[in-house]
Amino acid sequence: MDCYGAYERYLVEEKKASPNTSSSYLRDVRQYLQWLEGRGIPAEAASRGELEAYTGALFSQGKSAATVTRCLASLKSFYRYLLREGVVAENPANRLDHVRVERKLPQILTSQEAALFLAQPDVGEPKGCRDKAMLELLYATGIRVSEIIGLNVADVNLERGTVRCTGRNGARVIPLYPAAVKALRRYLEEVRPLVIERPDETALFVNMSGERMSRQGFWKIIKQYQEKAGIQKDVTPHTLRHSFAAHLLENGADLRSIQEML
């Protein structure tokens, strides 16, 4: 039995896991199977001892506790499927203790670091103009990555200076500061019409091929400007989200209003 191929079909066809979930689970399982293959051990013959050795190897490679915990969840799912199919008599991953994950407080940019970061895109170039609009909007609203890439042009009202965002808790309208409105207006008027692939494209932010921006593409943009700015902190969309909230508090906003925007 091709355990990997059968598990992949199970995730996609039966479990109907999302593309991101399937990709993550399959990557973890594939790396584990490659590790077993290097030791001449088939997946169906692996014991708890092999799994403990594998998690130890991951830590030796410098993987974080969170990464190892996620990997264990993937392997438990894999062996749960093999158990159901009668390929194994028990799930060896079930008896492994959970790896303790240290919860770190998110890093927050100072106001000076945030200004430096937002100043990095070259607005004289189409890509830089788009990136400036995305970063200003993210910092102005504190919305999540999934929310910003899911925005449509119709969600933005430049005359009122607001954006309508639909997230986990329904729709909310968030005010924008002037710099964000200016950056969005320039992008919408000068850049987006030139790069969209189809006239009926609804996405607010598109890649340079004219299609809706992806999560991976957005993360790359964040990392690019972190390096360009020389900021030593680990800047992520989550960093900007927490910085947004912290800076509002510093400037006198009340906590309840911030929570409603987030």
From TrEMBL:
Pfam families: Phage_int_SAM_1 (PF02899), Phage_integrase (PF00589). Keywords: DNA integration, DNA recombination, DNA-binding. GO terms for molecular function: DNA binding. Coiled coil: none annotated. PROSITE patterns: CB (PS51900), TYR_RECOMBINASE (PS51898). Residues 104-262 form the Tyr recombinase domain. Residues 1-83 form the Core-binding (CB) domain. One of its GO terms (biological process) is DNA integration. Gene3D superfamilies: 1.10.150.130, Intergrase catalytic core (1.10.443.10). CDD domains: INT_XerDC_C. It comes from the Bacteria. The keyword DNA-binding applies. The keyword DNA-binding applies. Signal peptide: none annotated. Site-specific tyrosine recombinase, which acts by catalyzing the cutting and rejoining of the recombining DNA molecules. Belongs to the 'phage' integrase family. This is Tyrosine-type recombinase/integrase. It comes from Candidatus Flavonifractor merdipullorum.
